[in-house]
Write a structure and sequence with these properties.
By secondary structure, this protein is an all-alpha fold. The protein has 4 helices and no strands.
């Protein structure tokens, strides 16, 4: 019987950590028939975008941190990635015209959806900031 060598396969450092289960508070709300998205909920979605941007700025400010200090940056990266996932889930769940009261709210939502779809959104677990510095 051959004993497996636990050191034979080393994980690649760029591999993202295993995904964690989605907590109930991070799941978008289900819309029953007749229930509409409120303006406050749209504002909350835009606040999530602001929070993600703020976290990304913190990550970029700390990108030169030494390997021993990266655990703090990795925590911020985890929160930023989680915020992006919550935004994506919400946008996907709201992609129905019938849950918006007005054309103005629908148009705002479609603009948010377009901005999310255009451009590459960085997933920090897969692409940490110090990876850019190593490639220089």
């Amino acid at each position: 019987m051959k004993i497996p060598n636990p050191f034979s396969k080393k994980p690649k450092p760029q591999d993202p950590p295993p995904s964690e289960p989605v907590l109930p508070g991070d799941l978008p709300e289900y819309f029953d028939a007749g229930r509409k998205v409120k303006a406050a909920e749209i504002r909350h979605l835009t606040e999530l975008f602001r929070r993600r941007y703020e976290l990304d700025l913190q990550i970029w400010r700390l990108r030169d941190s030494q390997p021993r200090d990266r655990s703090n940056v990795m925590d911020i990266m985890r929160r930023s990635d989680a915020t992006l996932q919550k935004i994506r889930r919400t946008v996907q769940a709201w992609d129905r015209r019938d849950i918006f009261d007005s054309d103005g709210d629908w148009d705002k939502f479609k603009e948010i959806q377009l901005r999310l779809a255009t451009g590459e959104k960085r997933v920090w677990a897969r692409d940490p900031p110090w990876k850019d510095l190593e490639n220089m």
